[in-house]
Amino acid sequence: MTAMIRKTPDMKNVEHLRQAEEKDVVKLFCRIRSPQDENYTSCLRILSDKEVSLTSHNPASSRAGPKELHCTFQQVFKGDDSQQTVFKQVALPLIKNLFSGRNGLLFAYGITGSGKTYTMTGDSQDSGIIPRSLDIIFNNITHLQADKYVFKPDKMNEFEIQSDRDASKERHRELQTYLKSARPQKTPKKKDDIDEFKNIPEYIQLEDVDEDNSYAVFVSYIEIYKNTVYDLLDSNTDDAGRSRNLQAKIVREDSAHNMYVHGVVEVEVKSSKEACEVLYSGMRRKRVAVTLLNSGSSRGHAVFTIRLVQAPLDRYGEFPIEDKQIIHVSQLCLVDLAGSERSNRTKNCGQRLMESGNINNSLMTLKSCLEILRENQLQGTRKLVPYRDSKLTYLLKNYFEGKSQIHALICVNPTADDFDETIHVMKFADVTKEVQVTQQVNSAKHNLDLPVGRRKDNQMHVEELRKVNQHIQERSTDEECSVDAVFPSLEMEDPANNNLIPDLLNFLELRRTQYQSVKNNSESKGKDY
Q1: What is the pLDDT of residues 329-346, one digit of tens each?
Q2: By three-state DSSP, how is residue 154 classified?
Q3: Sheet with 44-46: strands ordered across
Q4: What are the φ/ψ torsions at residue 218 (nearest 5 degrees)?
Q5: Cβ contacts of residue 190 below 8 Å, gap of 6+?
Q6: Please, are residues 465 and 487 in contact by the beta-carbon 8 Å criterion?
Q7: Strand partners, 289
Q8: What is the distance between the alpha carbons of residues 255 and 113, in angstroms, rounded to a whole number?
Q9: Strands 213-225 and 228-231
Q10: What is the spatial distance between Cα 23 and Cα 435, in angstroms, rounded to a whole number?
Q11: Residue whose C-alpha is closest to residue 151's, from 310, 31, 17
Q12: What's the rounded Cα separation, in Å, for the pair 52 and 77?
């Protein structure tokens, strides 16, 4: 007779804890902007490094609801806290998880003029979260990157691995295209504010970087303007070289039910400097306008995505294994949300008023999605989350319902004039910090029967070969045998070059002569002894 095991209350608690460990709440941070006016009246009081109090100084303050509100965060950053301090607390944990295969989302939320763009991108004096994130990534994979075009997007939000030969052909085509399109400029290009951005590099060693993997980094940059998606990296010229407006893009779902922008330009970058150049080229095309509250107000939501592609090296530690099934792609989405605005304060009209309406509607949809998502999680209901009501929420759907880690940075301008808008921001924060997301295990690891340290062994082997070649070259010089020990390149750089095979034959003949000379010399010295 089979005995039935009844679950005791203690066993139920253990199961409940195990399930709770698989969930993680959205981590909320707050950054308080330093007011430009020293004689300002503050509506914000910092109670501790994790709690703030928002208080109205206007008895007639109307629609904001309560006159005082307390809100807690993971960390509260004061106005004098540096960009580096904010980066290490808010973004660095997401980058660490990126290498272990976990997706991450970081978005900056607040009213217009609260310092969101400065925090995300920085200015001419100090770099922000996005450039620092790129620095950390490339400083840890500089010597682990695959050659360009080895990893190739398949246009369906996934990647494939090309052979070294095919990748070399694409690099050659890129070079030829660049040489044909390069034109000497008669007048130097006028610099703008973005050209003057200062990048202060970050050097932090990460632990989850697997040296037996091959890595590649792809970046994309889009803007959601008036509920339409535009690619900030897309070419603004047609085939005839004429300028054209940016084309609207479609948000789609791939075979793994992940949301992506179809047809978006993904640039493979090989250094932090190259990635920042791509970032700044996209920033020049962002829609920015002057309002009464902000001299550089973003008119749309900017989404910068970093995709880290990795695959294990083959048994010899030389090339990534050409198997699409073992490629792992993890992505970090960095979102600079446009600030909410009230027309009675900005005095916007016409086009600016339409832009403000679209910004506010998308932010309201984001809050509504989070409220329903929280209600479903806490009460066990199954209400439909209206992700499709906005392109922003539809694109970010996977981060809230899939396995990822989410950090939200609430940017606050503490002036009393902004109380009515800021209290709505704090209410959004209260909703957001109770939303749970599923934790993701280290999915970048593969159970392959491959030796550990194969990249290092291959590098040692290459170094030994280099020493042997150097020794042969020195011996050849002593014996007045003028032949280069380095094997000639066999890449066909010019189709009209008819000397490739004859040059190779001459080189091999000289090497054979060199070998015979060294052999005869060694035999004669052996007889002398």
Answers
A1: 999 999 999 987 765 565
A2: coil
A3: 44-46, 51-55, 68-72
A4: -120, 140
A5: none
A6: no
A7: 297
A8: 40
A9: antiparallel
A10: 10
A11: 310
A12: 11
The average pLDDT across 208-232 equals: 94
Query: Based on the number of CB atoms within 10 Å of its own CB, is 372 exposed (0-12), middle (13-18) or buried (19 or more)?
Result: middle
Strand-pair category, 75-77 with 228-231: unpaired
Query: Which residues, in sequence order, are CB contacts of 254 under 8 Å at separation 6+?
Result: 156, 157, 158, 260
For residue 104, list its beta bridge partners.
332, 405
> What pLDDT digit, counting tens, does each position of 392-416 carry?
999 999 999 877 999 999 999 888 8
Residue 110 makes CB contacts below 8 A (sequence gap 6+) with: 116, 337, 339, 340, 410, 411, 412, 413, 425
Backbone region of residue 408 per phi and psi (left: phi > 0; alpha: psi in -120 to 50; beta: other values): beta
Closest listed residue to residue 429, CA positions, set 73, 122, 154, 43? 73
pLDDT in tens, 352-377: 677 778 888 999 999 999 999 999 99
- Other Cβ atoms closer than 10 A to 397: 19
pLDDT in tens, 489-529: 666 666 666 777 777 787 788 878 777 777 777 666 555 54
C-alpha to C-alpha distance for 387 and 384, rounded to whole angstroms: 9
CA gap 128, 137 in Å, rounded: 15
Q: What one-character DSSP code corresponds to residue 126?
A: S
- The continuous run of DSSP H or E covering 306 comes out as strand 301-312
Residue listed under structure tokens 């159970």: 447
Strands 103-109 and 151-153: unpaired
pLDDT at 215 over 50: yes
Contact partners, residue 36, CB within 8 Å, separation at least 6: none
> Residue 477 corresponds to which tokens in the numbers above?
């010089």
Q: What is the CA radius of gyration of the chain?
A: 29
CA 436 to chain centre: 23
pLDDT above 70: percentage of residues in the chain:
77
Residue 269, classified by CB atoms within 10 Å of its CB into exposed (0-12), middle (13-18) or buried (19+), is buried
Find residue 304's DSSP bridge partners.
221, 334
Facing residues of 214 across strands?
311
| pLDDT at position 347 over 80 | no
In whole angstroms, what is the distance from residue 279 CA to residue 220 CA?
A: 9
Alpha-carbon distance 105 to 93, whole Å? 11
Where would I find the H helices in 22-100? 83-90, 92-99
Helices 83-90 and 92-99, axial angle in degrees (round to 10): 40
- Taking alpha carbons only, the member of 391, 425, 434 closest to residue 303 is 391
Q: Please say whether the beta carbons of 506 and 487 come within 8 A.
A: no
